[in-house]
Protein: Creatininase
Organism: Teichococcus rhizosphaerae
Amino acid sequence: MRIDAMNWMQVEEWLRHDDRAVLPLGSTEQHAWLSLAVDSILAARVSEEAAEPLGVPVFPVLPYGIAPAFTAYPGTVSLRAETHLRVVRDVLESLHRSGFRRILVVNGHGGNDPARAAAAEFMGEHAGCRIRFHNWWNAPRTLARARLHDPVGTHASWMENFPWTRLAGQVPPAAAKPVVDTERLRAVPPGEARRLLGDGNFGGLYQRADAEMLDIWETAVAETREILAEGWA
C-alpha cells in the first residue's frame, strides 16, 4: 500500500496490528540512454509490487543519493554522504516515532551503501527495532537470475533497461559496449569519469528482450516480498 494512498488514520489503524513499513532509496543520476530516475523508479516499483499483497505501507522513494562520480553529467544530483545519512536517519526516526518497528530499506543505488551502516547504528540505539537493508538488484536470487541471461550486466546497461525505465524516442546502440575499468573510474574526478564512460553505460549490451527482463523482475519482486514477509527473525 503506497503511503500516498493512505491518511494518518489508516496508518494508525495499520499500526494497531502490524509494525512493518518499506522505505525505498533511489538516486537521480545519468543512466546513459535511460531515465535519470532509473534507480528511484526501480526501487519504488519493486517495493510497491512486493508489498501490495501484504498490505504493508510503502513510503515515497528518497530520490537523491550519493553519486559524485556522475556530477559531470547534466541532471545528476548528488548528496554529500553525511547529508544522505542524516536524511535517512531522520526518516527512520520519524517512522519509529510513528510506531513502525520493522522497516525494510529497499535500495536502488550502489552509492547509497553507507546508509546500511546508518541503519545498523539506528537499530543499536532503538531497542526492539529491526531494519533490513536490501539491495534489490544484487540480492542472491535476483542476481543469479540476471546472470543466467547475460553474465555482463553493469550500470546503465541492459540490466537496468526495463519497459518502465526507457524514454520515448531514445534508441540505444545495438552493439555491446566494452566493459569499463571500474578501478580506474573510482580513481578519477567527475570530468575524467565522463571522458572514460562516454554515454554512461559501464559496459555490455544496452537492451535485452522484454521477456528476459520480466523474468528477472518477477524474481526480484518475489525475493523482496519474501524478506518483507519472513525476514525478521
Notes: The chain is about 40% helix and 10% strand.
